[in-house]
Specification:
Layout lengths: L1 E6 L1 E2 L2 E2 L1 H13 L3 E7 L4 H4 L9 E5 L9 H14 L2 E7 L2 H14 L2 E6 L10 E6 L4 E6 L5 E5 L14 E4 L30 E5 L9 H11 L2 E4 L1 H5 L20 E5 L5 H4 L7 E6 L6 H4 L2 E4 L2 H16 L1
Parallel strand pairs: 1-4, 1-6, 4-5, 5-11, 6-10, 7-10, 12-13, 12-14, 14-15, 15-16
Antiparallel strand pairs: 2-3, 8-9
Helix pairs in contact: 3-4, 5-9
Bound molecules: flavin-adenine dinucleotide.
């Protein structure tokens, strides 16, 4: 029996969310942990899945699998589950992960739970806890099928970093024409050094920043902290910032260790995207701003005075 983990890479390295999925699979303690990577990647980068608990990595690198093709990826994952006699598939919850997971569930007659927030309870069946309503509630589900698929939320388990790089073996998959009914004709990647959904720290700005010309203040703060930048919906609607930075119910949902909200009122739709952050810091000149009710730390004051002082203090600490 084994646990298969579908891992995603970005910029040549395994995504942190996928390493968390490998750590989760290791913590399950239900047999050998085998990672599966699809598409182009360096062996030396994939071998690092061993550090988080994989005993080996299968690499399906067929030329046709270069782009994220959901149907083809699902076929490869289902085939690997079958060949490796995997009872459980673990993957990180992501747009690709969810799309692949649902198709594998159909192909493999598996029970699927997405947005899983902690390890299962094996005491009576296979019970998992999953977040619903953008993290405002949880539901406990019992996975009854023989095969199980768990799409896990960020921070569901601590990242395991005490293993050693493992072997990477080629995986020969049998994809067919029907898997390529949809052809990707172009990919536009989000700019920025740190990906917002995976950032440990996020500095986010709202309409209180007054205009795009003031964003350098937030970028300086973000740079001093090694953070990604985000924004409220009106900010991206007005094109002050790109849409991929829009955080909230209708945008990206983030779970960083630290979320700093500057000049954002804290509307419920914004909070829906940030409420699983570990620590929320709010900077707003209005003491009645709703965001303060959700904040761990709040600073009442003008962002244009406070943020540069904060950045200078952090730079002094780093010096
Ligand atoms: C269906 C639906 C979906 C939505 N989805 C989202 C979503 O995903 N994400 C999202 O963000 N919104 C979403 N919204 C919009 C949401 O309701 C709010 O309108 C929006 O979040 C407000 O953005 P804001 O806080 O930047 O602006 P505002 O509400 O205008 O707040 C600006 C804040 O800046 C403060 N401020 C002003 N000047 C300064 C200064 N100099 N220093 C410090 N503070 C200052 C003000 O006190 C105020 O609190 C959605 C709305 C709907 C109806």
């Amino acid at each position: 029996m084994s646990v298969l983990v579908f891992i995603e890479s970005s910029e040549g390295e395994i995504r942190k969310s996928s390493l968390e999925a490998v750590s989760y699979a290791a913590a399950l303690d239900r047999g050998e942990v085998i990672a599966l990577a699809i598409g182009e990647a360096e062996e030396s980068a994939l071998a690092k899945a061993g550090i988080s608990g994989a005993s080996r990595v299968l690499h399906a690198k067929d030329e046709q699998l270069k782009e994220d093709n959901i149907m083809a990826y699902a076929s490869v994952v289902a085939e690997a589950m079958e060949k490796e006699n995997a009872e459980i598939l673990v993957l990180a919850k992501s747009s690709l992960g969810d799309a692949v997971a649902s198709r594998v569930a159909i192909k493999s007659n598996a029970a699927l739970a997405s947005n899983v927030v902690e390890l299962p309870d094996f005491s009576a069946g296979f019970k998992v806890k999953r977040g619903i309503y953008t993290g405002k509630a949880f539901v406990n589900v019992d996975l009854k099928a023989e095969k199980k698929i768990l799409a896990i939320k960020k921070n569901a388990v601590p990242l395991k970093e005490d293993g050693a790089p493992c072997a990477v073996d080629a995986f020969a998959s049998t994809v067919n024409e029907a898997d390529f009914a949809l052809k990707i004709t172009g990919v536009e990647k989000a700019e920025g050094e740190i990906l917002l959904p995976e950032a440990e720290i996020v500095v986010s700005g709202g309409r209180g920043m007054k205009g795009p010309e003031n964003w350098h203040i937030l970028e300086d703060l973000a740079k001093s902290l090694g953070a990604a930048t985000g924004c409220s919906k009106p900010v991206s609607d007005m094109e002050w910032r790109p849409h991929h930075e829009h955080v909230g119910q209708t945008g990206i949902k983030v779970s960083p260790n630290l979320y700093i909200a500057v000049g954002i009122s804290g509307a419920i739709q914004h909070l829906a995207g940030v409420n699983s952050s570990k620590c929320l810091v709010v900077i707003n000149k209005d003491p009645e701003a709703p965001f303060f009710k959700a904040a761990d730390y709040g600073i009442v004051g003008d962002a244009f005075e406070i943020v540069p002082k904060l950045t200078a203090a952090i730079k002094a600490l780093n010096a």
